[in-house]
Design goal:
Largest sheet of chain B: 6 strands, mixed
Strand content of chain A: over 45%
Largest sheet of chain A: 7 strands, mixed
Number of helices of chain A: 0
Low-confidence stretches of chain A: none
Distance between the termini of chain B: 41 Å
Order of helices and strands of chain B: EEEEEEEEEEE
Structural class of chain B: mainly beta
Low-confidence stretches of chain B: none
Number of strands of chain A: 11
Number of strands of chain B: 11
Oligomer: heterodimer
Shape of chain B: globular
Helix content of chain B: under 10%
Radius of gyration of chain B: 13 Å
Largest interface: A-B, 25 and 22 residues
Chain lengths: ~120, ~110
């Protein structure tokens, strides 16, 4: 079974609205989670590192005010796409690391966002 | 800035063939390298992880090699099966505590009957 759960798997929202995607680690605590974005037939691009109890660290070029990340507990990180536009339509994937060395990485099943 | 490239971008082979996927990275200062599998519209599944001090890892029909000094890794799939059809991604992790990964461009594999 999945050890990292993402919800929703698919969401359609109207342009200008906000949408929240959840990433939960099951059966383990994840102090660090990562959010990636993937365009069709392209690779994963790291958006931000989500740290429990502190502010997320965003990669260069990622608007932190547009992509709000909250990591309020050791098992949950959320990504909120604010004032969504059609160009935000993409596949968003989270990952969580387990173990002290951080080598064990589990990915969520991803969330398809379509902004109409 | 680390850049990871995979060739070929797409590959179609008949069932039973052995095949090699290639991954190259520009900065040899890596902590480890992983190969992942991604089915269409799904998340990623880790296949093999090679630490920077290792040369290869094997799991079943899969064998991954690492030549850190030349910035290259290969994923060898023996006796391919239709169920192997997926996109294969390699990713490198830099030294340090953060498990940030830089992903390659992926190879889309199709194994035909």
């Amino acid at each position: 079974g999945a050890v990292v759960s993402q919800h929703p798997s698919r969401v359609i929202c109207k342009s200008g609205t906000s949408v929240k995607i959840e990433c939960r680690s099951l059966d383990f605590q994840a102090t660090t989670m990562f959010w990636y974005r993937q365009f069709p037939k392209q690779s994963l691009m790291l958006m931000a590192t989500s740290n429990e109890g502190s502010k997320a660290t965003y990669e260069q070029g990622v608007e932190k005010d547009k992509f709000l990340i909250n990591h309020a507990s050791l098992t949950l990180s959320t990504l909120t796409v604010t004032s969504a536009h059609p160009e935000d339509s993409s596949f968003y994937i989270c990952s969580a690391t387990a173990g002290l060395d951080g080598n064990t990485i589990y990915f969520g099943e991803g969330s398809w966002l379509t902004v109409v | 800035k680390q850049e990871v490239t995979q060739i070929p971008a797409a590959l179609s082979v008949p069932e039973g063939e052995n095949l090699v996927l290639n991954c190259s990275f520009t900065d040899s200062a890596i902590y480890n390298l992983q190969w992942f599998r991604q089915d269409p519209g799904k998340g990623l599944t880790s296949l093999l992880l090679i630490q920077s001090s290792q040369r290869e890892q094997t799991s079943g029909r899969l064998n991954a090699s690492l030549d850190k000094s030349s910035g290259r890794s290969t994923l060898y799939i023996a006796a391919s099966q239709p169920g192997d059809s997926a996109t294969y991604l390699c990713a490198v992790r830099p030294p340090g505590t953060a498990s940030k990964l830089t992903f390659g461009t992926g190879t889309r594999l199709q194994v035909t009957l």
